[in-house]
Design brief:
With about 375 residues, this protein is of the alpha/beta class. The protein is about 40% helix and about 15% strand. The chain has two domains: about 180 residues, Glycogen Phosphorylase B (Rossmann fold, 3-Layer(aba) Sandwich); about 180 residues, Rossmann fold (3-Layer(aba) Sandwich). It contains 16 helices and 13 strands. A seven-stranded parallel β-sheet has the order 3-2-1-4-5-6-7. Strands 10-9-8-11-12-13 form a six-stranded parallel β-sheet, with helices on both faces. β9, α10 and β10 form a beta-alpha-beta unit.
Length: about 375
């Protein structure tokens, strides 16, 4: 490798982030000095990183308004100077905004990592001053799907030369799950077919579509249950809709859980009707548990690695529930074929998104004269 340098990961992370952790640990293994600076407290991620020799730090408490942003800006500049940071990877919008400004006041290669594709467009936030400034000031931006890169170039006017597509990278050894616990979960539900949808309960993730799918299956005489993992503003609407559809006894909403893989391992299908993705994590996690997934065609990077009938299914997002019913009914009496599809998903995920496969793409970015 090239000469070791000091690499900073700057983010608002509190929760674990397996892809970001995988990169930090890989860079550390290569001999670099790796730091993590959280705008939050790093409550769960920092103790984990410390076990691998990653140095962890926390920013001053964030204060609202421009004064708070200036405080964060000056702190980051001083931090990078004091610890002789050579390369900075910022993650998510709050960190990207500060890092995009800070790069003009320090001799650091600043790389902004954008985890969404068109989320801000859907939310009507792509015209905000901070978002526009981030895009204008950024020198290098990493995105995790070709769709995200296209959206930035075509809809946000970002020069193609400033946008780099690199797949998410995972050290899959960082994942652990208990097949025994999955079996215990599975036997706790009386229904024969278990559907899992995991993600925030928001309009763009469309958990209500999963509920419509549950209703359609039960109306066909399929003994199905839906597990909705996550929290969000649609929670009360989902519960009310379940009552209207008379499926409330076959819906379970445990909220946010930290053992998603155990739930996926207990599921017959992962149902993912989301219409805003860059590179979806939960579908990759489904592959680790050999759980077949039904996703939307044309969203995120699904078209790049999900092949219909081979390792998963891509359906029309406008007709998701009806199309998903057809898929499920085709496999209702073919458990082994369904399992085979999940296993193929796992194989593709482990090949395409392995840290060993993706890591070479970072070599030049970490090369500093």
């Amino acid at each position: 490798m090239n000469n070791p340098v000091t690499i900073l990961f700057y983010s608002p992370f509190n929760q674990r982030s397996r892809d970001t952790e995988s990169l930090m640990i890989a860079f550390k293994t290569q001999g670099h000095r790796v730091l993590s600076l959280s705008q939050s407290q790093g409550l769960l991620i920092h103790p984990f990183l410390s076990n691998y020799g990653v140095e962890t730090y926390v920013c001053p408490a964030f204060k609202p308004g421009w004064l708070g942003h200036l405080t964060q800006l000056f702190f980051l500049i001083r931090f990078c100077h004091h610890l002789e940071v050579a390369v900075l990877y910022s993650h998510l919008e709050s960190a990207n905004f500060i890092a995009s400004m800070a790069q003009y006041f320090m001799k650091v290669r600043v790389i902004l990592c954008r985890h969404h594709s068109d989320l801000f467009h859907h939310l009507g936030l792509d015209k905000t001053l901070s978002y526009r400034l981030t895009n204008r000031l950024a020198r290098i931006m990493i995105v995790y799907s070709a769709n995200a890169k296209k959206h930035m170039i075509w809809h946000e006017g970002i020069p193609e030369s400033r946008v780099i597509h690199i797949n998410l990278a995972y050290n899959f050894d960082l994942y652990s799950w208990s097949p025994h616990l999955s079996r215990s979960l599975r036997t706790s539900w009386k229904e024969k077919l278990i559907l899992v949808t995991a993600g925030s309960l928001t309009p763009l993730k469309r958990p209500l579509v999963s509920l419509e799918l549950l209703s359609a299956l039960r109306n066909r005489g399929v003994d199905a249950r839906l597990i909705l993992l996550g929290k969000g503003p649609l929670e009360s609407s989902i519960k009310q809709k379940a009552i209207e559809l008379s499926v409330q006894d076959h819906l379970w909403m445990p909220g946010y859980v930290d053992n998603v893989l155990e739930f996926l391992g207990a599921a017959s299908w992962l149902i993912h009707p989301s219409i805003s993705e860059s590179s979806c994590v939960v579908v990759k996690e489904a592959g680790l548990t050999s759980t077949p997934a039904i996703v939307c065609h044309g969203i995120g990077d699904f078209d790049d690695y999900v092949e219909n009938g081979v390792n998963g299914f891509r359906v029309n997002h406008d007709n998701f529930a009806a199309d998903a019913v057809k898929v499920i009914m085709n496999y209702i009496h073919s458990d082994q074929l369904r399992i085979n599809i999940g296993e193929q998903l796992g194989q593709v995920v482990k090949e395409r998104f392995s840290i060993k496969t993706v890591l070479p793409a970072y070599a030049k970015l970490n090369q500093v004269k």
